[in-house]
Amino acid sequence: MVIILMDKRPIGVFDSGLGGLTMVKELIKLLPGEDIVYLGDTGRVPYGSRSKATITKYAHQDAAFLAKYDIKTMVVACNTVCSVAFASLKSGYDIPIYGVIDTPAGIAASKTKNGKIGVIGTAATIRSGKYEEALKNINPELKVHSVKCPLFVPLVEEGWTSPDDEAALSIANRYLGELRKAEIDTLILGCTHYPLLSSVISKVMGDKVALVDSGTETAKYVAEKLQKNNIINDKNNIGNIRYFVTDSIHRFSKTASAYLETDVHGKVEQVTIE
Ligand code: DGL
Prior knowledge:
Blueprint: E1 11-15, H1 21-30, E2 36-40, H2 52-67, E3 73-76, H3 79-84, H4 86-90, E4 97-98, H5 102-111, E5 116-121, H6 123-128, H7 130-138, E6 143-148, H8 152-158, H9 166-181, E7 186-190, H10 198-205, E8 210-213, H11 214-228, E9 241-245, H12 249-260, E10 268-270
The protein binds D-glutamic acid (DGL).
Residues 15-17, 19, 45-48, 78-80, 121-122, 125, 153, 191-193 line the site of D-glutamic acid.
């Protein structure tokens, strides 16, 4: 006898801004029946240039907001939060909480052929050394080169993401030059925003360097876990997605609709987080 359990509660996802939509897009693709509650703390982005104490405080406020929606699991899409506050978040809730470091690290370790892996992220993510730690735990022989790229987030927020954009190319060349010299063959995009810049990054790094998107890879892992644990929602439903932001609804709705290729106007609400 096959027992099919179903859990109709939504999945909660949060990020410091709109970058976590890379994760949401993949979750919708893999688990179209799931309801999702997304929080983008657009009023306080970026987190990556802030102190550990501030990032931890914001992370707990974001998680507490999502927990009010009776979620069955929480996914922390923000690499910065996962780098500095994940352990304290995990211990505060009795639902499964997934972060974005270990899965992409595992994928990168299995993809590399020459053992040289690059990691790019915000200042806080790179300072934390969490990706390096995760990679070395998998294989201590790996050579890991980490570079902070703080100007990539405003480039994405501004929409300057085309591979022909001169400003984007010039900034990417400056940040990524040392990774080219280090001859990495695999690069972890350790920030929610960076997949939106992947054509610029690929142009600079060359097409022989494999890019690993932390959000997409983690979404695949979470989908697999929910399926394995038999707690997915009814597949015959089309899931309802609610978006909460802490700044202008208009700007988020426009960018999210373009990125998700579906109109989210009317599904976005502005909230105050404290
Ligand atoms: N969401 C952040 C991350 O993934 C990037 C934006 C920020 O600095 O808040 O690290």
